[in-house]
Design a protein that fits this description.
Helix content is about 75%, strand content about 0%. By secondary structure, the protein is mainly α. Helix 2 (about 30-50) crosses helix 3 (about 60-80). The N and C termini lie far apart (about 50 Å). The mean pLDDT is about 75.
């Protein structure tokens, strides 16, 4: 159970950093930011380890998680964002 809580806390942290990197209005709220942070952490962490860019417990994993969350946030904004008036 602590593993799930740990991922949620890490996702909150990564989602908050991604939101700071990419400010603006999102179509989702705080929960969506946390979920995107968790997904970004998983995807970024997985890809970084698969390609051998870093090992466990290295700071590069945090940066990859933030990068993954930012990419997911961009995709989320493109898909679910409101169209801008012309």
């Amino acid at each position: 159970m602590f593993g799930l809580i740990g991922w949620a806390f890490f996702g909150l942290l990564v989602g908050a950093v991604a939101k700071l990197v990419m400010p603006g209005k999102d179509p989702g709220g705080c929960i969506v930011t946390i979920l995107l942070g968790i997904a970004g952490a998983v995807v970024g962490g997985y890809l970084g380890r698969v390609f051998g860019w870093y090992g466990p417990n290295e700071w590069a994993g945090f940066f990859m998680a933030v990068l993954g969350a930012v990419i997911l946030l961009v995709i989320y904004r493109v898909i679910f964002g409101k169209p801008k008036p012309e």
